[in-house]
Amino acid sequence: MEIPKLRIGSFTSDIPIIQGGMGVRVSLASLSSAVANEGGIGTISSIGLGDIEASKQEYERISREALIKEIRKAKSKTDGHLAVNFMGVLSNVDDLIKTSIDAGIKMIVFGAGLPTKLPDLVHDPSVNLVPIVSSARVAELILRIWDKRYERTADGLILEGPLAGGHLGFSEEQLEHPEEYSLEKLLPEVLECIKTYEDKYARKIPVITGGGIYDGKDIARMLSLGASGVQMGTRFVCTEECGVSLEFKQAYLDAKEEDIVIIKSPVGMPGRAIKNSFLKDLEVKGKMKIKCPYRCLTICKVDKAQYCVALALVNSYFGDVDHGLIFCGQNAYRINKIITVKELIQELLSGLKAA
Question: Which domains does the chain have, with CATH numbers?
Fold first, then answer.
């Protein structure tokens, strides 16, 4: 079979795969450029690039400079397609979005919050705006607001299901019954809700599915259901080009299915992570000391938080996994080796063709 291309606004990638944006510092220039070089869309995460113990002014400056550095580094390594991922709850998200556009990024992926004002920040029509949604209801709300306020629509939508890693757009109750919110059930509803806007703007709004996508067979299934492509994060962690510590990757390799759990994050959202000594210690201690001179996330409940989620993720990035949080998707336990991005992409495409 011929591998279908993925068209998102002004982008046309050779393969229907977007590498998911993973913070803190999991998906940066090395990983994103390697994916772009293989024909996919590589995503840089803008989350957690600053010094979390810095003052407000210093944090914003360091975050801005670090993001510019990663974008320039990635662009120097590839002529392929690059995106930057943002969380709407970042306190400096508007500044980082403008920074990425000034640095030449042409695709903005926006999650963890409703991007109701995003078109007002991005006036360049060549920049593709791609919100992350968890349901048809959320997709309809975003598209309706953009249509009425800005007379424009999304260039694409990423539909993340309940098997994704990191912070999740589902309640704890919903996550207890993930089969009721599977991508197979959510995707047709989203495809139906976007028809009105596709007709009005005379363009296709591609829907990219993510969360639990593991192999080529999964990709084929999503494409057969009407998705234009898939987003994959977890599979790319155990690649040589991913810049996290070896200890971080080893945690994936050692994980068993029962080790992957849903946690309560300080930001008030459930998340999926590997149950390690850090999470076990939390159960005993209940709360850790938190120093927060600058609140990097607007919804973080610092006074009630058990720990600083940003610091915990940074610790794991550097290798201190005993004092760190390790986000992952539901299928992380299936990974058993570290390979290159090229090898992973070839494996996925071979599986897609076979399916």
Answer: 6-244+336-354 (3.20.20.70), 246-323 (no CATH)
